[in-house]
UniProtKB/TrEMBL annotation, chain A:
WD repeats lie at residues 8-42, 273-305. Its main location: other. It comes from the Eukaryota. This is Nucleoporin SEH1. It is found in: Lysosome; Nucleus envelope. GO terms for cellular component: lysosome; nuclear pore outer ring; Seh1-associated complex. GO terms for biological process: cell division; cellular response to amino acid starvation; positive regulation of TORC1 signaling; protein transport. Keywords: Cell cycle, Cell division, Lysosome, Mitosis, Nucleus, Protein transport, Repeat, Transport, WD repeat. PANTHER family: NUCLEAR PORE COMPLEX PROTEIN SEC13 / SEH1 FAMILY MEMBER, NUCLEOPORIN SEH1. It comes from Scylla paramamosain.
Automatic annotation (TrEMBL), chain B:
This is Nuclear pore complex protein Nup85. It is found in: Nucleus, Nuclear pore complex. GO terms for cellular component: nuclear membrane; nuclear pore outer ring. It comes from Scylla paramamosain (Mud crab). Component of the nuclear pore complex (NPC).
């Protein structure tokens, strides 16, 4: 059960992405209004917008935070074919603490809309990957983590199909070579699989495609590796015509050119869910990799969780709806929603529970 | 049963027309979700909406809510972790033949924790009632009533599990335990007895006979005798006869020196005597006394007629067994419970609680846990219950299912606690007992804690060091170093840099600091 609290997004247009920092206390939102806003949680646990600025010359598709070990850094990517890296600068003027975000670098190599941008796991240093509508994945690195003005392009991967999303494998172990999953939203199902797995070979200094998920040939709009806390396999959530959960289990093979063993993967589909009954646009994981959130064209957000037998199922559905006669408490920063008939002024947030479970004979206790 | 159907689904509606189209959700802080309306876009067109379109775009933050986060439950959480930890230690240290005693003790500790919470909640309800004229929010009272209901049910289940699975004594004793269980959880006749006896003329009180029947059905024969003795005809033959029968009903004594077989014989002899007196018309003058005797004879029809005094099928079941099968064994309960449900079917709807209790009567531990998962909105109860049951069967080597289920539930519960700003330390205590996945989650949880101050950082470092999570220590130091640097506190930055053994960072800061001094 959840308690809901609303806040005014203050963007002049719809939001494309929301990203939280590592601790969940800072939030970045980006929009078609070409700006990014930074929000901080104040002492009353309310979100306050502490910065807002124009970042690109086109819609900003995605925003993402670097690990706090590198400082307060975000990266954005846009329809204007560029990506950018921003760092916060805090100054204490006489009137209190003032936060501005300074553009440290612009990445202008792409000739098409840059559709996704993600920082690599911190163990790889300060690296990030972008992907574009032209089908190119680019990996950049700041060799000196203390100097964010210098970002050098390290690798280019041509996926041959337009790319919509990328995800780094967050696996913290040094045993696994860096791994990236790329998704394509090419509308042509006969152009083949739409999810590609690339692995970095330290020997050859190249990114190699080690797998393509043949079971997924519909356009992929989003994908994400799950944080791996003690699993022996990788877990990938995919947003396509339905929700997919795929496991990749590393299988060591002796390779003919014996410069050590190369990894290949045993790919299994752990779940395929059409509950949205429509295109699924976004998927994201929680910090522990136990819950997957999906959103679809049916206007719902669903949460998915595996039981102790690793069987995935939907545990929660949230639906946006037009509701008549909703009274709203009037306050500046945020307001709490009330449902139902009489509004008696300020109320603390109420429970939004509707009809419960699958089994009609079961009565909820709460 | 569909094994994937563990926890019940929840539904939520966000009343916002903007969200009608496409709503997106991002999780953060181990349990919170931010919902926002998302616009469809393609890679080839830059869709900005019509200029001048004035719309208020709202985002919605969802926080998990549960009775577990209430003030009343805080003590419950803190005390139960103590019992959990002491259970793990005690079991490993105890001799095999002492295991059961340890588990019974720990089960009773959990029960008393729940009971203490019930008492606290009751006190709060009283206090709220007294302050009602101050316009106390009715929703708080409602929450407390719901909480009381949940606590009652948890204690009911746990006490049944205790007597069926953990505190298993000799065959003859099961009925006594079941009777005590019913007496404890259905105290209404106790209350009524007081009311009736204090009235002017008890025998004329409308509840008089019902209280007698109710006491008999609960095996409280002394109470029944006491109430009967208040009747003006108490010294007439029928009353004296029934008093004798009530007085002489045999109850199995564990250490009484009588074997189960002998007890059974005595009991049959007693019941035959009841039947004889009934047939010979000892109670012909009073249909009430006749009814009592019929109960003693185990007459199902009479017992069933008094269903409204028993409320539930399990009360009916135990009352029936009391007068039909005093040496009932665990495997009899499956049929006995089905039978009671059947007899009561017109009076009640089967609830989720009934499913849990039925599973217990079927001696199906796994099903008990599953049914509990279905109705609980948080894993507190199922986690501790599963841990108890796991230890109960572990040395018997029977259950293959319980170990992974126990670990899963512990991780689930700990994860829930870890997301809470004041309970993350409790989470770590559980994660210490969850194997490698617990360790991985503990490290993640420690790293994700917002570092609000230096002392907070020190606390996290201390807890990480205790567990030899060197990576976490280094990471926290790096973050603190960066923070100090951005705030211009170069001395502090160097200090943290050194602690994190990050040479590049430290030398960079040192360089900065040298430049400043120039």
């Amino acid at each position: 059960m959840f308690v809901a609290k609303s806040l005014n997004a203050e963007h002049k247009d719809l939001i494309h992405d929301v990203a939280f920092d590592f601790y969940g206390r800072r939030m970045a939102t980006c929009s078609s209004d070409q700006s990014v806003k930074i929000w901080d949680l104040n002492e009353e646990r309310e979100w306050v917008c502490t910065a807002s600025w124009k970042t690109h010359c086109g819609s900003v598709w995605k925003v993402t935070w670097a690990h706090p070990e590198f400082g307060q850094i975000i990266a954005t990517c846009s329809f204007d074919r560029t990506a950018a890296i921003w760092e916060e600068s805090v100054s204490d003027s006489g009137r209190g603490i003032h936060s501005t975000w300074i553009k440290r670098a612009g990445l202008v190599d792409s000739r098409t809309s840059v559709t996704d941008i993600k920082f690599a796991p911190k163990i790889q240093g300060l690296q990030l990957a972008t992907c574009s509508a032209g089908g190119v994945v680019r990996i950049y690195e700041a060799p000196d983590v203390m100097n964010l003005n210098q970002w050098s392009p390290q690798y280019e991967i041509n996926c041959k199909l337009q790319c919509s999303c990328i995800s780094w494998n967050p696996s913290p172990s040094r045993l696994h070579a860096p791994l990236i999953a790329v998704g394509s939203d090419d509308p042509n199902t006969s152009s083949g699989p739409k999810v590609f797995i690339y692995e970095f070979s330290a020997n050859t200094h190249k990114w190699n495609r080690v797998d393509s998920l043949v079971s997924i040939s519909d356009p992929v709009h989003d994908l994400a590796f799950a944080p791996n806390l003690g699993r022996s396999y990788h877990l990938l959530g995919i947003a396509t015509k339905d929700v997919r959960v795929v496991t990749l289990r590393p299988v060591k093979q002796e390779s003919a050119q014996s410069q050590g063993n190369s990894m290949s993967f045993e790919v299994r589909q752990a779940g395929q869910f059409d509950d949205h009954n429509s295109t699924v646009w976004r998927v994201s994981w929680n910090a522990t990799g136990t819950i997957l959130a999906s959103s679809g064209d049916d206007g719902c957000v669903r949460l998915w969780k595996a039981n102790y037998l690793d069987i995935w199922r939907c545990i929660s559905t949230m639906r946006g709806d037009t509701v008549e006669n909703v009274a709203e408490a009037d306050s500046s920063g945020g307001s709490t929603q009330q449902m139902g008939t009489a509004s008696t002024g300020q109320h603390t947030a109420r429970y939004f529970k509707l009809a419960p479970t699958a089994h009609p004979a079961h009565l909820q206790w709460h | 049963m569909d094994p994937s159907n563990d926890t019940a689904q929840t539904w939520q509606t966000i009343p916002d027309s903007m969200m009608n189209g496409r709503m997106c959700g991002k999780t953060f802080s181990l349990g919170s979700i931010m919902l926002f309306p998302q616009q469809e876009h393609t890679n080839y067109t830059d869709m900005a909406s019509e200029s001048g379109a004035q719309r208020t775009v709202k985002m919605y933050q969802l926080e998990p809510s549960s009775w577990l986060w209430g003030r009343q439950a805080r003590k419950l959480i803190n005390e139960s972790v103590g019992t959990f930890l002491s259970l793990q230690t005690a079991i490993t240290e105890a001799e095999p033949d002492r295991h059961n005693a340890v588990l019974v003790k720990k089960c009773r500790e959990y029960r008393s924790i729940i009971q203490a919470c019930q008492q606290d909640t009751k006190n709060l309800q009283q206090a709220n009632e007294n302050e009602k004229q101050n316009g106390k929010e009715p929703s708080t009272q409602e929450d407390l009533i719901i909480l009381q209901d949940i606590l009652y049910k948890m204690e009911l289940i746990l006490s049944l599990v205790e007597l069926l699975f953990i505190d298993t004594m000799s065959d003859g004793h099961l009925l006594n335990q079941l009777v005590k269980w019913i007496q404890l959880h259905f105290p209404q006749h106790e209350r009524k007895k007081g009311v009736v006896l204090e009235s002017d003329r008890p025998h004329l009180h409308p509840d008089y006979w019902n209280t007698v029947y109710g006491s008999v059905l609960q095996g409280k024969l002394d109470d029944a005798r006491l109430i009967l003795s208040n009747h003006p005809s108490a010294d007439t033959d029928p009353f004296l006869s029934i008093d004798e029968l009530l007085r002489k009903m045999p109850f199995f004594q564990v250490y009484g020196g009588v074997s189960v077989g002998d007890f059974e014989a005595r009991w049959q002899h007693w019941q035959s005597e009841c039947e004889r007196r009934l047939e010979e018309g000892h109670f012909a003058s009073s249909h009430n006394l006749q009814a009592i005797c019929k109960i003693l004879c185990g007459d199902l029809e009479t017992i069933s007629k008094l269903m409204n005094l028993m409320d539930t099928w399990y009360h009916l079941m135990v009352s029936t067994l009391l007068f039909t099968k005093p040496t009932v064994k665990l495997f009899h309960l499956s049929n006995a419970s089905q039978d009671a449900i059947l007899r009561m079917q017109d009076q009640q709807v089967i609830t989720a609680l009934d499913h849990v209790l039925l599973a217990a009567m079927e001696a199906d531990m796994y099903q008990v846990i599953k049914e509990c998962q279905q109705v609980m909105d948080n894993p507190w109860f199922t986690t501790h219950l599963t841990d108890l049951l796991y230890h109960t069967v572990q040395h018997k080597g029977k259950h293959q299912v319980l170990p992974p289920l126990r670990e899963y539930l512990l991780l689930d519960y700990a994860e829930m606690l870890a997301g809470h700003s004041s309970l993350w330390q409790v989470a770590l205590l559980y994660l210490d007992h969850c194997g490698p996945r617990g360790m991985a989650m503990a490290q993640e949880a420690l790293q994700r804690l917002p570092i609000t101050s230096d002392s907070c950082a020190q606390k996290i470092i201390q807890m990480a060091s205790e567990r030899e999570f060197e990576g976490v220590v280094v990471s926290v130091c790096r973050v603190m170093g960066r923070r100090a640097l951005s705030q211009g506190r170069l001395g502090a930055a160097i200090w943290w840099g050194m602690r994190s053994k990050d040479a590049a960072f430290t030398s960079h800061v040192a360089h900065q600091s040298w430049k400043k001094k120039k």
